[in-house]
């Protein structure tokens, strides 16, 4: 196995419950995150992202598989590296009556971090101006940034964020994006799980896509996308019916739509305009269609990636485990299993 900041090989986890029966959450999953990457962990609702992260952090016991974090075998040796890892798994809970400053100060004292670090992380996440307000008055985005601030107290080399953009409005999503980019620029390796593909495409350089507990794609975002490039072109012309006939007669794979054509495997778009122009059909638009993560995700997982339409890949209703909805205290790493 190549050495990485996070290495997961053959992870398996099945949940058993009387009410819901047996549910395979993660089914032989592999993940490799290397130093310096901003790595997107993508998958539809219920595909196994949170279970994977919980297993990695020792919050749920894996049935099988090998996992390493910063070279330490997980979860057994996690305490050795816990000070170098920041992790937020789903929405963290804070005391509403405390200010952000007080919250972080307490966490710093509890974690043996110099209190001077509190102002630094508050500035880093853009909360310095509001740090003396009570957390209960914070927006969700501000609470998310406070969570990231708490995870940054120990200057982690690795930051794991589970769905950091969940529930945020566009401005909050942009703030979170800028924050993650800034951390990456400072050399922090970041693993971000999400089903908001446009976000992942904007901030991540590498991606692993999970579907039904299995890895279905992994690699640099550009390479994963290139693997799905069918060199299609969108064509609009003054006589669409005639254009379709001419391009088909020229041996091109053409799909007709109401107001445009899609022509497949076009090595050089000039062949399209030449074929049509020579017959007096004038091209109004000729646009190469590049795959985006959204289309690749849809093709790989068979699931539309709309945050507005949560859909479990296994057809069940989304699972909400109260134990998941909290920030992981790094001390929790010690011997926690389930
Ligand atoms: N504690 C649990 N008990 C029983 N089933 C569970 C438990 N946790 C997760 N599951 C099931 O395991 C599967 C994977 O869930 P998981 O939460 O890991 O997916 P996810 O990709 O993080 O989804 P989401 O994007 O909705 O958070 C789902 O079918 C889920 O219902």
Automatic annotation (TrEMBL):
Keyword Transport: yes
Alphabetical list of PROSITE patterns matching this protein: ABC_TRANSPORTER_1 (PS00211), ABC_TRANSPORTER_2 (PS50893)
Name under which the protein is recorded: ABC-2 type transport system ATP-binding protein
Family: Belongs to the ABC transporter superfamily.
Keyword Nucleotide-binding recorded: yes
Natural source organism: Micromonospora phaseoli
One Gene Ontology molecular-function label: ATP hydrolysis activity
Superkingdom of the source species: Bacteria
UniProt keyword terms in alphabetical order: ATP-binding, Nucleotide-binding, Transport
Region of interest (Disordered), residue spans: 304-325
Domain ABC transporter positions: 6-237
């Amino acid at each position: 196995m190549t050495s990485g900041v996070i290495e997961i090989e053959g992870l398996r986890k099945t949940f058993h419950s009387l009410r819901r029966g047996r549910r395979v959450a993660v089914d032989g999953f592999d993940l490799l995150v290397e130093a310096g990457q901003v790595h997107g962990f993508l998958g539809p609702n219920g595909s196994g992202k949170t279970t994977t992260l919980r297993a990695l952090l020792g919050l749920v016991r894996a049935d099988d598989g090998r996992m390493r974090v910063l070279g330490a075998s997980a979860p057994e040796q996690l305490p050795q590296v816990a000070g170098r890892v920041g992790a937020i798994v789903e929405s963290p809970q804070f005391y509403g009556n405390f200010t952000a400053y007080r919250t972080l100060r307490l966490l710093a004292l509890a974690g043996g971090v110099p209190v001077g670090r509190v102002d630094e992380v508050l500035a880093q996440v853009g909360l310095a101006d509001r740090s003396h307000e009570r957390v209960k008055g914070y927006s969700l985005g501000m609470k998310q940034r406070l969570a990231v601030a708490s995870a940054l107290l120990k200057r982690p080399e690795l930051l794991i964020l589970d769905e950091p953009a969940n529930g945020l409005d566009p401005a909050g999503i942009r703030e979170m994006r800028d924050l993650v980019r800034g951390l990456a620029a400072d050399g922090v390796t970041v693993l971000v799980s999400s089903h908001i593909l446009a976000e992942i495409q904007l901030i991540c350089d590498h991606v692993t896509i999970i579907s039904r507990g299995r890895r279905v794609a992994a690699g640099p975002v550009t390479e994963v996308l290139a693997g799905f490039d069918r060199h299609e072109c969108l064509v609009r012309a003054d006589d669409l019916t005639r254009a379709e006939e001419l391009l088909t007669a020229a041996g091109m794979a053409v799909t007709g739509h109401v107001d445009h054509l899609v022509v497949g495997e076009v090595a050089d778009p000039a062949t399209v305009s030449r074929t049509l122009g020579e017959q007096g059909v004038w091209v109004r638009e000729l646009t190469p269609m590049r795959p985006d993560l959204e289309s690749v995700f849809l093709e790989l997982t068979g699931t539309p990636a709309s945050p507005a339409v949560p859909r479990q890949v296994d057809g069940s209703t989304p699972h909400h485990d109260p134990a998941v909805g909290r920030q992981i205290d790094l001390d929790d790493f010690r011997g926690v299993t389930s």
